[in-house]
Amino acid sequence: MHFFARCLCSSLEVKADWALNESFEEMHEQMSGYKRMRREHQATLLKLEEKCKVEMETHKSALDKEYDNLLHNFTRELDRLGAKHQQDLERRSKQTTTAEKKLHKEITLKQEGDRKAYDLNRKKEYKANKERWKRELSMDESTPKRQRDLTLQSQKDNLKQHEAQEEQRMLQAQKQYIELEMRKFKRRRMILLHDLENQLLRDELSKKQHQLEQAHGMLLKHHEKTQELEYRQQKSVHQLREEQINKQHDTELHNQKDYMDRIKKELVRKHALELRQQPKSLKQKELQIRKQFRETCKTQTKQYKRYKAQVLQTTPKEQQKEVIKQLKEEKHRKLTLLGEQYEQSISDMLQSQSYKLDESQVIECQRTNEQLEYELDMLTAYQNKNKKQAQEQRDRERRELENRVSVRRGLLENKMDGELQQFNLERAERLRMKHEKHSKELEAFDNESIALGFSTLSLTEVSRETYPDEEGSLSGSMISLAHSNSSTSFPAGSL
To answer: Is residue 372 within 8 Å of residue 263, measured between CB atoms?
Structure first.
């Protein structure tokens, strides 16, 4: 029976050692799992961040390419517009040259017609005057014939001289007229050319302003796309971090609960082992008490023998038998009392040991449960603190991103405002320079006209000729030769 108890106790001790080793192995496996999980989380996070970085670089490259293509298209459009404006100016110059030649030709043809009509009319009047003078002189018979011939010749010479003067005056008037009309035409065409240049400049500036607005619109659109991508990437990173933290916390709680269950099971096994080992320890203590009782009995027996010998030496022989009987009874009574005391001690020891064992196990269970609950509370508090710190970090990163986006938007708006102000200054400067150039050209033309003998007022008067004011309209510039208001026209009978 004792051998079976010893074997059972040894088996329980081996199981306890095996459970302890198993606990250490589980803890080691948990720590290895934590390290492996952190490495996996870190690798996944780095992979996502690298993916976001590549995506952002690709996004920025695509936006830069789109913006460069837009600027390239703007340059091509401005080149085409500049070429078109140059063609318009060249076409206007050719039209002006053609119209000038045509106007000069038409005025010249009209003046030639006026001169021919004048010559024909002059010949008719000369012939009529000659016949009239002959009739008048032939009626005056009192005047000698020679005198009449001299008078007729004198009248002829005076008429020819007058006609020559009138012809010279007409030629001079025609020359002044055609020069004046050509100066008016040139001045008018110069003003029209200035208007065309102003219109082309306004078209160019409007085109540049439209392109600038398009570029600014694209920059704002790119800013919004980049902002959306940054927010989306940050959200994915934050979501991954939150999922990893939740997974880690769930694993920690699961392992903690497993640990608590394992500790409780180990405590139950320990108490069971203590309960099974209790009879052996109590038996050993009982044997020790009984051994002490036997030694005490031997000591008292020796003392009784010495006391008996002393008493018998002083006791008469006839009383010794009675004394020995009394001594035996006293010895038996004392040994019985001593045995009862030791039995009571054994009983008290057994009862006290059982009570102490039950009480210590309950206290140990309470302390273990309290310790496990404390550890669980500490873990929960640590996880809550970790979650709070992670949330604060996410909020801080979100605010930092919002600040960066806001600053970048402000810089972009400042850049666009600066470019718009620069464009407005450039536009005002180019308009001013164009206005000064036109004013100087017109002033130089008027000064040249004054030097040629034409007043500015005469150049600004409405022309008697009809010539086109609009581009490509030459049909209205045909000058009527039949109905002319020119000062060089001389109707019949004007002399």
So the answer is: yes
Residue with tokens 């405002």: 417
Per-residue pLDDT of the chain (495 residues; tens, 9 = 90+): 333 334 434 444 444 455 556 656 766 677 787 888 889 989 999 999 999 999 999 999 999 999 999 999 999 999 999 999 999 999 999 999 999 899 889 889 988 888 888 888 878 887 787 777 667 666 666 666 677 677 767 777 787 788 788 888 888 888 888 888 888 899 999 999 999 999 999 999 999 999 999 999 999 999 999 999 999 999 999 999 999 999 999 998 998 898 889 888 888 888 777 766 655 555 676 677 677 777 877 787 777 777 777 777 777 777 777 777 777 777 777 778 877 777 777 666 655 555 455 677 788 888 989 999 999 999 999 999 999 999 999 999 999 999 999 999 999 999 999 999 999 999 999 999 999 999 999 999 989 888 888 777 777 776 666 655 444 443 333 333 333 333 333 333 332
| pTM beyond 0.70 | no
Q: Cα(95)–Cα(467) distance, rounded to whole angstroms?
A: 12
Give CA separation, 451 vs 143, 285, 442, 444, 447, in Å. Answer: 57, 150, 14, 10, 6
Rounded alpha-carbon distances, angstroms, from residue 394 to 43, 238, 244, 401, 469: 20, 7, 14, 10, 73
Which pair of tokens denotes residue 68?
Answer: 């460069």
Does residue 465 sit in helix, strand or coil? coil
DSSP state of 470: S
Tell me how far apart the alpha carbons of residues 100 and 112 are, in angstroms, rounded to a whole number: 18
